[in-house]
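Researcher: Can you fold this with zinc ion in place?
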Amino acid sequence: MKEILFLSPVFKETIWGGDRLRTEWMYDIPSSHTGECWAISAHPNGDCLIKSGRFSGQSLSWLWEHHRELFHNLPGPVFPLLVKIIDAKEDLSIQVHPDNSYAAVHEDGALGKSECWYILNCKRDSSIVYGHNARNKAELRALVEQNKWDSLIRSLPIKPGDFLQISPGTIHAIKAGTLLLEVQQTSDITYRLYDYGRLQDGVPRKLHISKALDVIRCPHKDEIIETYGQAQMGDLQIIPLIASPNYTVHRIRCRRKATLNQRYSFLTGSVIKGSGAIDGIPIAQGSHFILPYDYGEYTYTGSLTIIEAYL
Ligand code: ZN
């Protein structure tokens, strides 16, 4: 019998974080400046522990190391996906991530970072920073050096339920009041371009202007998101969000009872709304789990909205 792996999140305090992970998500967070819930992660900066069952108390990185068969013996040094919930009480720094080949050379063989966002909640008329207006690198460099952020930065309106793909080389920033779920490659490499002149413990956070200028794509191009068909079958609705080389993500809605089939190397699930059960085990908003390789059929019961991801 294959076991579902439930995980305990790791929380990160940040200068821009808030308390909604407690007030809206019922998590036991360390302070009212908690910006990130690393919900499914084997990254050394936040390695989730298995909550129950025969691997209870082991970390996800330990499972990846010692029970790779649970993940179809996938190659690679680390479990490839990282799922976070982000509560931005303040604006996040304007940033960009490298791709795999740049990171391999300049970051000691680390992976680059592609990420995607599902907007859980935001204020009316919210926006995010996404892309820029420079036509070429020279113009980009000039606008950055002259601190002309308003001319450089592009903003995009957002609302709950929106989905965005942030490829390596794309300037981006989450703005105050936004709560979102992020699925990303397992990487923690961020090049900070601008931090609004803020101080952390009395000093500005480090910027990485020259690496950022190296990797920013010029001119900016909006993402064409590839998906496959949407499906509605009785109590089950599947909304595809993205199918990419780094991850495939969709949103599942179950009204009363829905049976699906896990036929991937692994599949992650994050409950973003409602309560019910998976194969009889209670789950609710804030539960995160992994279905291992070849798990086969599984059944959701109850009223649930879930973000699922796999390779
Ligand atoms: Zn980012």
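Model: Folded with zinc ion in place. The longest strand covers residues 296-310.
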